Amino acid sequence: MVSLCPTTLSSPFHSKTLKLNSYPQNANHRPFSLLPLSAVASRSGYETERGFDFEIGDTFFRHESATGRDLGVLAAALYKKKNDNLRVLDAMCGCGIRSLRYLSEAQADFVLANDANEDCNGVIVSNLSTVSSEEEGRWKVIHSVANRVLAERYVERDYFDFIDVDSFGSDSSFFRCAFDVVKLGGLLYVTSTDGFSSGGHRPNHSLAAYGAYIRPLPYSNEIGLRMLIGGAVREASVLGYHVSPLFSYYSYHGPVFRVLLRVNRGKPPHGMYYYYLLQHYGFICYCDCCGNSQAISWDKLGQIKCPCGSDVPDSLVVCGPLWTGPLHCAEFLAEMLSLAGEWGWVGNDTINDLDKLLKRMIDESNPDLSFGFIKLDEIASRAKVNSPPIVTVMNAIHQEGYGVSRSHISNNAIKTNCPMSECIRIVKGLQQQQL
Ligand SMILES: C[S@@+](CC[C@H](N)C(=O)[O-])C[C@H]1O[C@@H](n2cnc3c(N)ncnc32)[C@H](O)[C@@H]1O
Asked: 110-160, pLDDT tens digit by residue?
């Protein structure tokens, strides 16, 4: 038997010495991204999602991830509509529900479904067989660590239109291999469940995984998305690719951070890539004293100071480097929403949430709105009043000429370019009107 060491596993170029279907036999040498079995939420039996009945056996499956799957399927289907061809690599497929949905709903021409755990094989094959027989060649199931699968595809020059990496913890170790296997113009759907890092509780870890030093901020879940995009942007630029987020989605079930990236090479639409990077890849500075946030570009790093002039020690919290640009592409989201409507996903109970989510994401794509969000509780506590209804606050801010939207991340928060001092004045005014 081949003896595997972690270095061997993480090196893509050892694939020829190992059987593709081999899975590390020695528990001590399990790839670092595989969690201990005790951490795996598994339930035996069958599930239903969007009208599909499928087996889950003892594989990892979470109901709560359905929205993330819906978003991926809509995006893949849009890609297929525009490009007429769709080859999907589902790098960590669990029971194969995503592969099943990419085949059935997005009409993928081919899906390569991989999961390192060979025990998932029977369940995946049985689920995909409900779409077509294995002999028809629309899908193939393999079992290997994701980076090895990706590296082998790269060596074979076997590129994919859509790659889904649904990992546990941080996904940054898969970026490089994945970028090399996505077709130019193709889509990479990545996931992180690393809520500790985004919350600023493990700055050394976020530095190691995403190259970003993250400290606690009031909008840490948005920071999680920005940390993920920033890490991907950085890794892509090392290889000469440029990426831009088409949508970013946070779900508190996990928590889970998911981002769909378009991968390209050459000049991005808005000028030279490095100019684009300098514009959108930098630092975020939050002032504890006044509650305002600002983006700091690399050339302004030496001049960090809050306009409120605070001289309170440690009042400025600086995080980064991370993505400070838009979280979504509004046009792409609008197309997803329209497709959801065509599929009849708008209007029934489960879909109402997706409908609301997509509309909220479109709203928060407004480029005038600063990154981060402000929780109403924070405004109310600084203004020393009770929190007024969110819609009343938003209307009042809007009437004062500022941009304002909800955030898909927090129900009780707004995104606005209205400074905190003005928000406080507006909220105090609303309170007085009520007296
Ligand atoms: C979050 S689950 C996938 C869930 C699935 N995508 C879904 O939507 O239901 C992650 C899966 O990745 C597998 N896995 C973990 N580390 C892996 C690695 N390095 N390479 C390939 N598969 C891996 C696990 O066995 C597990 O089934």
From this structure: 999 999 999 999 999 999 999 999 999 999 999 999 999 999 999 999 999
| Mutation test residue for ligand 1: of 115, 150, 152, 258, the one with most atoms within 8 Å of CB | 115
Residue 179's Cβ-count burial label (10 Å; 0-12, 13-18, 19+) is buried
State how beta strands 139-142 and 110-114 pair.
Answer: parallel
pLDDT of residue 3: 35
Higher pLDDT, 351 or 155: 155
Residue 282 has a CB neighbour count (10 Å cut-off) of 22
Q: CA–CA separation, 235 vs 238, rounded Å?
A: 5
d(CA 409, CA 371): 12
Q: Which residue's alpha carbon is nearest to atom 9 within ligand 1? A: 61
- How far does residue 58's CA lie from ligand 1's centre (Å)? 13
pLDDT at 38: 36
Average pLDDT over residues 94-102: 98
ipTM of the complex, rounded to two decimals: 0.99
Q: How far apart are CA 347 and CA 341, in angstroms?
A: 8
